[in-house]
Write a structure and sequence with these properties.
- It is a single chain.
- Helix 4 (127-139) crosses helix 7.
- This protein has 17 helices and 15 strands.
- The longest helix has 22 residues, at 90-111.
- A hairpin with a 2-residue loop joins strand 11 and strand 12.
- The mean pLDDT is 90.
- With 471 residues, the chain is α/β, with parallel strands linked by helices.
- It is elongated and about 95 Å long.
- It binds one RNA strand of 74 nucleotides through helix 6, strand 7, helix 8, helix 11 and helix 13.
Length: 471
RNA sequence: GGCCACGUGGCGGAGUGGUUACGCAACGGUCUGCAAAACCGUGUACUCCGGUUCAAUUCCGGACGUGGCCUCCA
């Protein structure tokens, strides 16, 4: 089955051919660790986790390297550290913030069923690589030193040669446009308004490192260089897939690509650039300033992680999602049904229809359609069908627990006393046996008021059996 | 202002130059003491206006709407 992926750079869906099938390499921009991740941050985590799982399925679990960085040097972190730990030296406070946030992030992404990446490099552990790339760029004439800053020149890049990609190609804009649209307050040390910072001097008290390119004062890296450095270190000069949110296309990925391609005189950094779309919450723009945002943590208090995961996968990754409680409700019901049908089934081979849908640029909506079909086959079929359905769900990171765990979790969250329910059901069974339907219906209403839904059935011997669940 | 993406039935959401998406909800049936669940079945769609075409929801142009990005700041 041929894997096809949409590439933001060429704006086309193409067959995916790894540079090295023995080691398929993917880099995804991870969090800047200063606060709880919000539900929008969960989207790339889930989307690229599914891609990671698919690649492992296709090329073998040991033949995929997935790198997701942790950015632990940033002004937002510094601000947060100063705010939250005013009594501590800044560097210590920063460490506290980044360690705490990283732990929160890991707890959250584990809960939404994402595999840990192969490597999770930290920016602060790759300062040497950043300096090395900066030195190469200065030596190559793509960057220059000015007032203890190092600046990258897109103009120099575009003037250089025909091997390099055009600056602006990823974000689909021309340098002329950017020059025309530049803001008036351009820093005085820049030669051109489009130049961007690779390295800047540290202010007193800020984290700092020895500077590259003969600068004598200590400094710290600009925004984009850390990803060029970490991707280089862990995946090489060129690799297969680079992913992230669509907001990163420009300037972050554009600049990363420029830095890397110029440093290594290459025409590509990643062979495929993939970007996930944005989230709205209840049809409103998600924005911190208006308070209209939900953290992963808050969502997890209300829903199992798998509900968030399935809800995210209902929409194709490049389309916008309207994140609503109604939709989550629906996802939750779907999972209840799937758990009931397949949770305890064994199977290690996902259905072809599922692999096929995922292979078409991660068409998870189509995948879910296939799952509905498999669910029907599983409900009316035997162990083979149930196994195939279960394996397909597990490939997506769903169905990670047993049916009993799934049900028990919901029951626990509702705070309903199972023993009390069983007592009431025993009374009702007795009432039904003596055809006192008034009483049995009264008990059913009582249970319904508690939030318990009951189902009457018969066992193999034809004896009436009543099961129940949280409505 | 520039660039880009999106606009599908009550809701969510794929896809396609001419034929059922799928799921939820709704409705009908089977089952049931009655329900629920399950199973079977049914209906309603492609923002608007032009153009291309034998034929457009699908291609092209425009309008309107929604969202994103427009650099050293998140």
């Amino acid at each position: 089955m041929e894997l096809r992926l949409y590439d933001t750079l060429t704006k086309e869906k193409r067959p995916f051919t790894p540079l090295d099938p023995e080691n398929v390499r993917m880099y995804v921009c991870g969090p800047t660790v200063y606060d709880f991740a919000h539900i929008g941050n969960a989207r790339p985590v889930i989307v690229f986790d599914v891609l990671f799982r698919l690649l492992r399925h296709v090329y073998g679990a040991g033949h995929v390297t997935y790198v997701r960085n942790i950015t632990d040097v940033d002004d937002k972190i510094n601000l947060r550290a100063a705010r939250d730990f005013p009594g501590l030296p800044l560097n210590e406070a920063i460490r506290k913030v980044t360690e705490l946030t990283e732990r929160q992030f890991h707890d959250d992404v584990d809960a939404i069923g994402s595999l840990r990446p192969t490597v999770e490099p930290r920016a602060t552990e790759h300062i040497a690589e950043m300096r090395a790339i900066i030195e190469k760029l200065v030596a190559g004439g793509f960057a220059y030193v000015a007032e203890d800053h190092v600046l990258f020149s897109p103009q120099a890049m575009n003037a250089a040669n025909k091997v390099l990609p055009r600056y602006g190609a990823l974000g689909n804009r021309s340098l002329d446009e950017m020059i025309a649209g530049a803001r008036v307050d351009v820093a005085p040390y820049k030669r051109d308004s489009t130049d961007f910072v690779l390295w800047k001097p540290a202010k007193p008290g800020e984290p700092s490192w020895p500077s590259p390119s003969g600068i004598t004062t200590p400094g710290r890296p600009g925004w984009h260089i850390e990803c060029s450095a970490m991707a280089w270190k862990h995946l090489g000069e060129r690799f297969d897939i680079h992913g992230g949110g669509i907001d990163l296309v420009f300037p972050h990925h554009e600049n990363e690509l420029a830095q890397t391609c110029c440093a290594f005189r290459a025409d590509r950094m990643a062979n495929v650039w993939m970007h996930n779309g944005f989230l709205q919450v209840e049809s409103e723009k998600m924005s911190k300033s208006t308070g209209n945002f939900i953290t992963i943590r808050e969502s997890l208090a209300e829903w199992p992680g798998e509900v968030l995961r399935l809800n995210m996968l209902k929409t194709h990754y490049r389309s916008p999602i309207d994140w609503t409680s109604k939709s989550l409700e629906e996802s939750s019901k779907t999972l209840d049904d799937w758990y009931a049908v397949a949770a305890d089934a064994r199977g290690d081979r996902p259905a072809d229809a599922v692999i096929e849908a995922l292979s078409d640029d991660l068409n998870t909506a189509q995948t879910i359609t296939a799952l509905h079909g498999l669910r029907h086959a599983a409900a009316s079929g035997g162990e083979r069908e149930r196994g195939e359905f279960a394996a397909s769900l597990r490939l997506l990171g769903l169905l990670s627990m047993s049916a009993a765990e799934w049900k028990g979790r919901k029951q626990q969250a509702s705070g309903i006393d199972a023993q009390q329910v069983d007592r009431l059901l025993a009374d009702r069974t007795a009432a039904r046996a003596r055809k006192d339907f008034k009483e049995s219906d009264r008990i059913r209403d009582e249970l319904a008021a508690m939030g318990v839904a009951i189902k009457d059935g018969k066992d193999a011997d034809g004896k009436p059996v009543t099961t129940w669940e949280i409505a």
